Amino acid sequence: MLLKKGKKVWNVKVAIASDFSGYRLKEAVKDHIRSLGYEVLDRGAKSEEERTLYFDASANLAKCIQDGEAERGIVICGTGAGVSMIANKFKGIYAVACESVYTAEKISLINNANVLAMGEKVVSHAMGAEMAERWLAGQWCQDFEPQRKANNEKGYARLKEIENENYK
């Protein structure tokens, strides 16, 4: 499925959260993906003054996905690093901190990441909006040739095995 610039490509509910330092980027990204037609659940800071910390914002978002309230999530702090580290401590959450549109698109297609992490201090609002749009447009193994798809499926199965071995 090709990205249709400026349009929702598939139906998915998205959770979004940020700490206080990522609030402005969260609002810009949230407004953009809502304008595309995505349903967005905000599980983060409600203002810059609300001192929501990165570990609480990220945990709220991860639980929202674990509980089935949303299929995908976008989590934001100053760098994207802290929120991705916390999100990845929850079983079934696969978060990647991104600083480029290319990487954001590929983590959806190749890695089946269900959480996109970004940083307010390293990603502009326009770039964050484009990263979210491209990431949401991609579906795992979309348009892959059979051998590449089989390899990705094998890798994802191994990821699940490792997760099950290590999450007690």
Mind explaining what this structure looks like?
The chain is α/β, with parallel strands linked by helices. 45% of the residues lie in helices and 14% in strands. The chain is built from 6 helices and 5 strands; from the N terminus they run E-H-E-H-E-H-E-H-E-H-H. The protein has helices at residues 23-35, 54-66, 81-87, 101-109, 125-137, 146-166; strands at 13-18, 39-42, 72-77, 95-97, 115-119. Strands 2-1-3-5-4 form a 5-stranded parallel sheet, sandwiched between helices. Helix 4 links the parallel strand 4 and strand 5 (115-119).
List the helices and strands and how they pair.
Elements: E1 13-18, H1 23-35, E2 39-42, H2 54-66, E3 72-77, H3 81-87, E4 95-97, H4 101-109, E5 115-119, H5 125-137, H6 146-166
Parallel strand pairs: 1-2, 1-3, 3-5, 4-5
Helix pairs in contact: 1-5, 2-3, 4-5
- Let me know the largest β-sheet: 5 strands, parallel
Distance between the amino and carboxyl termini: 38 Å
> Using only CA atoms, what is the Rg?
15 Å
Number of helices: 6
Chain-averaged pLDDT = 91
Percent of sequence in beta strands: 5-15%
> Which overall shape is indicated by the principal axes computed on the Cα atoms?
globular
Going by helix content, strand content and strand pairing, the class is: alpha/beta
User: Strand tally, please?
Assistant: 5
Q: What oligomeric arrangement do these chains adopt?
A: single chain
